[in-house]
Specification:
- This protein has twelve helices and 14 strands.
- The chain has 368 residues and is α+β, with helices and mostly antiparallel strands.
- It has a five-stranded antiparallel β-sheet with strand order 2-1-7-6-5, with helices on both faces. Strands 9-11-12-14-13 form a five-stranded mixed β-sheet, covered by helices on one side.
- Helix content is 49%, strand content 24%.
- The chain binds adenosine-5'-diphosphate (ADP).
- It catalyses: ATP + protein L-histidine = ADP + protein N-phospho-L-histidine.
- One of its GO terms (cellular component) is plasma membrane.
- Keywords: Kinase, Phosphoprotein, Transferase, Two-component regulatory system.
- It is an enzyme of class 2 (transferase).
């Protein structure tokens, strides 16, 4: 698509420049400017001597030109090759984000001779965001591979241990129990990876259903009940709210369940986990409050990143995958909401999910 537009633009522009060259040889025609401004590709016209004579609106923010000069050695080299060979060239160049600092912007660029005045046309597309997303994806895949290797490695070692301990039924039973734990870890991790990738693809608000907040919280509490009982932790539900939100109930329950499991996992036995709800100015706030170990300020932002754990050993002990909070964050964002945390070391943590309340929910309920 871009190629077609590009070819068309070059052909059209060349004819224009040619036609108007006689009467306005020293200026770029208004139509050419309008055309360059209308394209989503950023464009710059360079006169002989590498002087930029026109740059489109989209090009102004790319930092290709500073003080009337072309910025970036790679770009300058590419332009000079085209000037020398009179053959169009394309490639990727990095240009500095500013006069100081190490930051760069990655641009794909196409430079071609333009008209018969010795002009060159440069067409640019900012690839920085795509490159960043690519890097995040590569990072994620590398992290997943690392995370998968741990339980798989443990299973392999344990199976060898079982073989060697075949004469001792007690040892065999002990190793088999450890194998069960590692197999569960593996299946939890795979399930969370599937959950996360589904969340990244889906838009729950497109086929949103009415979700009753009290029911959704009751389901999440029900799912966390077993873990709470095992740890003798009391799950307390604050007053019911009788409100609804638009969205995907499964996803919302999963997010609240994740917060409850964390509140249980990162607290001592026999403590309390409370879940409160309130609606202020059309925004539902769900708070999960624990009396657990708390989180240091420096970690509170990072815990929503995939695979970030404050204490990897503790997370491993509790069977954590490191994906729970990034799932919560995705669910909240996908539903037009936010998630935040307040925490104090040794005192406890409060995680808040805010979601827009379904408008006129009561009227719809009444009409049913
Ligand atoms: P994990 O599977 O390791 O629990 P999460 O993404 O759910 O992964 O959480 C990331 C990290 O945030 C945890 O490893 C833990 O260090 C910290 N964390 C999450 N919830 C709490 C909490 N309620 N109290 C203290 N720390 C928490």
């Amino acid at each position: 698509m871009a190629e077609t537009l590009y070819d068309w633009a070059v052909a059209w522009g060349k004819s224009k420049i040619h036609v108007e060259a006689d009467s306005h040889s020293d200026e770029i025609s208004l139509q050419v400017r309008e055309l360059l401004d209308a394209m989503d590709l950023a464009s710059v016209l360079f006169a002989p001597g590498d002087v930029p004579v026109y740059f489109s609106k989209a090009a102004q923010n790319l930092g290709i030109i500073r003080d009337q000069k072309i910025v970036g050695e790679e770009l300058l080299a590419l332009i000079r090759v085209v000037r020398r060979t009179k053959i169009a060239q394309s490639g990727r160049v990095e240009v500095p984000l500013g006069p100081i600092g190490q930051g760069t912007r990655l641009l794909s660029v196409n430079v071609t001779p333009f008209g018969d005045q010795g002009l060159l046309l440069g067409l640019f597309r900012d690839e920085s965001e795509a490159a960043r997303i690519d890097a995040v994806r590569r990072d994620f895949v590398a992290n997943i591979s690392h995370e998968l290797k741990t339980p798989i490695g443990a299973l392999s070692i344990l199976s060898e241990a079982v073989l060697e301990a075949s004469s001792s039924p007690d040892d065999v039973a002990r190793f088999a129990r450890r194998m069960q734990i590692e197999a569960k870890r593996l299946s939890d991790l795979v399930q969370e990876i599937i959950n996360l990738s589904r969340l990244q693809d889906a838009d729950p608000l497109l086929d949103a259903l009415v979700v009753d907040v009290d029911e959704m919280i009751a389901s999440a509490m029900h799912q966390a009940q077993f873990s709470a009982e095992t740890r003798e932790i009391e799950l307390v539900r604050g007053p019911l709210i009788n409100a609804s939100v638009d969205g995907d109930k499964k996803q919302l329950v999963m997010a609240i369940h994740n917060l409850l499991e964390n509140a249980i996992n990162y607290s001592s036995n026999k403590t309390k986990v409370t879940i409160n709800t309130s609606v202020v100015n059309g925004i539902l706030e769900i708070s999960v409050i624990d009396q657990g170990i708390g989180i240091e300020d420096k970690d509170t932002e990072r815990i929503f990143e995939r695979f970030y754990r404050v204490d990897p050993a503790r997370s491993r002990e509790t069977g954590g995958t490191g994906l729970g909070l990034s799932i919560v964050k995705h669910v909240a964002l996908n539903h037009g909401g936010t998630v935040s945390v307040w925490s104090s070391l040794g005192v406890g943590s409060t995680f808040n999910i805010k979601l827009p309340v379904r408008e006129n929910a009561n009227k719809i309920e009444e009409a049913k």
